[in-house]
């Protein structure tokens, strides 16, 4: 669940049981975003609930930015609501709506899921970055020692930057048109990884091994490219965290140039085991 409209699954799983019937004992989960038409988490979680005999259901909730706090505060008062997934554009604001925040949330400043704790308080977590890095590893793309150009300092981009640095990236250069947001992120990350993270006016593509789009550009037909892939050196990996469409214009152009590409779905499947552990579910056998 990201600024690009991504969340934890690629779509409905096949060959799984029908959803558990909803009753007066059903536990609730929601995914909040604006828009939410693109979210895929219900297609993963609801079959998993059914497979594992959990009396629970996840539903999408469209929330405008100016209504987010009122809606989330209301949801947190629902006695049988246990989790709130967060997607575009609410991740920074959602992080402030929990009493406790994980280290990943404190570093990135954003959250993509909130969980009700046993005492009724709420814990904010962010699996965007760890899921992205896990997806790269599964696809055979090394992070340690790599030079990264990252477009986007928003909810997903901030988590991805922190995860790349944690995984040993040699340099992460971040670009974003929102200069105050960009500078705040880089200053925060530099406190943990001095000398390895930089703000850049333009992505240093000629000097990067991995170029990542963590912006919403590509969600809609006609969006401009977040960066020109032709400026990359041969062999540089181009990654896009947008899930729908699967083949973004950026990835199509990069592939046409002969560059290795990395789809958004990899980031999402990389998060599944973490979400399952977070909510006490068994991870799917194929994860």
Secondary structure: helix percent: 25-40%
- What oligomerization state is this entry in? single chain
The name of the CATH topology of the largest domain is: Rossmann fold
Name the CATH superfamily classification of the largest domain: NAD(P)-binding Rossmann-like Domain
- Return Rg in Å: 18 Å
Helix and strand arrangement:
Layout lengths: L26 E7 L7 H11 L4 E7 L5 H9 L4 E6 L4 H5 L4 E2 L1 H6 L4 E4 L5 E4 L2 H11 L8 E5 L3 H12 L4 E5 L3 H12 L6 E3 L10 E4 L23 E4 L8 H8 L4 E2 L1 H6 L2 H7 L9
Parallel strand pairs: 1-2, 1-3, 4-6, 7-8, 7-10, 8-9, 10-11, 11-12
Antiparallel strand pairs: 3-5, 5-6
Structural write-up:
- The structure is a single chain.
- By secondary structure, this protein is an alpha/beta fold.
- The chain contains ten helices and twelve strands.
- The chain has two domains: 27-127 and 271-278, 3-Layer(aba) Sandwich (Rossmann fold), CATH 3.40.50.10860; 129-267, 3-Layer(aba) Sandwich (Rossmann fold).
- It has helices spanning 41-51, 68-76, 91-95, 103-108, 128-138, 155-166, 179-190, 249-256, 264-269, 272-278; strands at 27-33, 56-62, 81-86, 100-101, 113-116, 122-125, 147-151, 171-175, 197-199, 210-213, 237-240, 261-262.
- The strands form two sheets. The protein has a six-stranded mixed sheet. A six-stranded parallel sheet has the order 9-8-7-10-11-12.
- Strand 11, helix 8 (249-256) and strand 12 (261-262) form a beta-alpha-beta unit.
- Helix 5 crosses helix 6 (155-166).
- The longest helix has 12 residues, at 155-166.
- Residues 1-14 have low confidence and may be disordered.
